[in-house]
Amino acid sequence: MIYRAPPADALLAEPIDAFTAVYHRPSGQTHLLVEPAPEILDALGRDGLTLAKLRAALAERYDLTEADDLAERLEELVAAGLVSAA
User: Fold this and answer.
1) Strand ranges across the sheet with 19-24
2) Which of 12, 22, 49, 70 could connect to 53 by a Cys-Cys bridge, CB 3.0–4.6 Å?
3) pTM
4) What is the pLDDT of residues 37-77, one digit of tens each?
5) From CA 40, how far away is CA 77, in angstroms rounded?
6) How many CA atoms lie within 13 A of 39 on its CB side?
């Protein structure tokens, strides 16, 4: 499965304390995200990544443990309409 973030111009992100407010222009919805969701969106990009490649990309920048459930975070982003999966 390949996970993709929307085009960069479809999202407007603004950090607010421990949250990142993400306005999704196509839906008109604003989402409040916490770490690692904004980092996942940034890492995925428009070309997309598999779960394994996403884990590797994030591990280069962040201290990930096996307990970090990226699959669950991805499914939450898919359910929110911020990530597509195919």
Assistant:
1) 11-16, 19-24, 29-33
2) 49
3) 0.88
4) 999 999 998 789 999 999 998 988 887 766 568 889 999 99
5) 9
6) 16
